[in-house]
Amino acid sequence: VARDGDQPEFLQAVREVFETLQPVVEKHPEYEKAGVLERIVEPERTIKFRVAWVDDEGKVQVNRGYRIQFNSAIGPYKGGLRFHPTVTESVVKFLGFEQILKNSLTTLPMGGGKGGSDFNPKGKSDAEVMRFCQAFMTELSRHIGQFTDVPAGDINVGGREIGYLFGQYKRIRDEYSGVLTGKGLEFGGSLARTEATGYGVCYYTQEALRVLRNDSFEGKTVVISGSGNVATYAAQKAEQLGAKVVTVSDSNGYIYDPNGINVEVVKQIKEVERGRIKEYAERVPGSEYHEGSKGVWTVKGDIALPCATQNEVDGESAQKLVDNGVTVVVEGANMPSTPEAIEVYQKNGVLYGPAKAANAGGVAVSGLEMSQNSYRLSWTFEEVDAKLKSIMEEIVANSLAAAKEYGHEGDLMLGANAAGFVKVANAMVAQGVL
Ligand code: NDP
């Protein structure tokens, strides 16, 4: 802790996990002997680099790039790249640490890593985004590879950016391999990767509702934050499963649509036009736009799916959700709930699905993309979707089994942390002190 005192997001993520691991560590004295806890919080490698690029005015811009290769006990480092002005070493480390346990939960052989840059793509031209991606990959390319470290997308890194990054890697290394996931379908991408995180969140929710409450999405009102990749496809799947989604948001404000969000309009505004969510209200009669993204948590509903960013639900917002009838909160974004919010869920018997379990569908399908690249073939949408669904159901089952084993029956948070951790810890013990 002393070593990372200036990294609040990282410490928050570690504290949340370690608080739940007490019964696991008590049952496994070999972990203490092997120094597993001390080792798992120290990244195997932290890479920080300068990214210099030229903007459309001919001016040189400088950003900072990161890649944190956190843990390779169960597979090559795997985790997304985030481009956002709020990216710091602390943010990348919290995401990388979560990724270790998340990837373990998918049942696929992937270690944990994460990266990104404080580059802000808002208002940048397509050519500027391309030049930034090329500059970023010029440095990153020497540290990654299909058997070493396989990055993917995250906030502001979608199909366009992955395309530019992949092209530059191929040019520099003269090698055509599955070094990135989330690629275009023409060059090694997997069907259903775009939908995977959002769909996975809903498959997870549906399964947890079935097992713990004998219930489903059918007839429920759903409050969603964000309007990016995760939010859009969570909304689409929730609607397919019989729910009505009444909100989406961005960092400026939120949309309330009492008739149910029209996902096609969201996709047109966000994916095609790269516009702001405000425009939804100008196009869909009966919907309203409200300034301020936090207001989304004051909307009445049964199920809340935070799908935007970290710490977007604080204690006060969580209390509002509960007061308005929400009894299920499942996280699409990484660490969207503050510790105070989680306390509110626990006090009020909310069915709480933590991010590292609920949003693991994205990286799971990335793992399937790696398999397809290795086999040099591609599966159909239906095949990938069916595998995704069964992985999400398995994550619920494994989390509940671990929760029971460690004396906290029904606790999806403790269960996810324990199940994810044990597999990595066993591998670390078996491989000796590294
Ligand atoms: P996108 O860039 O596609 O979308 C991010 C969305 O969140 C945008 O609507 C953005 O609005 C909004 N947002 C960002 N910051 C804030 C903020 N401070 N307040 C309110 N809204 C905000 O990213 P993704 O959908 O890919 O990622 C969303 C979350 O899901 C992240 O936590 C990410 O780590 C997590 N995740 C993503 C996975 C994936 O496969 N993509 C996999 C697992 C987790 P604006 O346009 O205004 O910035």
UniProtKB/TrEMBL annotation:
The active site is at residue 114. Coiled coil: none annotated. Gene3D superfamilies: Glutamate Dehydrogenase, chain A, domain 3, Leucine Dehydrogenase, chain A, domain 1, NAD(P)-binding Rossmann-like Domain. GO terms for cellular component: cytosol. Keywords: NAD, Nucleotide-binding, Oxidoreductase. GO terms for biological process: glutamate biosynthetic process. SUPFAM superfamilies: Aminoacid dehydrogenase-like, N-terminal domain, NAD(P)-binding Rossmann-fold domains. Substrate binds at residues 78, 99, 102, 153, 366. One of its GO terms (molecular function) is glutamate dehydrogenase (NADP+) activity. CDD domains: NAD_bind_2_Glu_DH. NAD(+) binds at residues 197, 229. The keyword Disulfide bond does not apply. The record marks 154 as: Important for catalysis. Belongs to the Glu/Leu/Phe/Val dehydrogenases family. Homohexamer. PANTHER family: NADP-SPECIFIC GLUTAMATE DEHYDROGENASE 1-RELATED. This is Glutamate dehydrogenase.
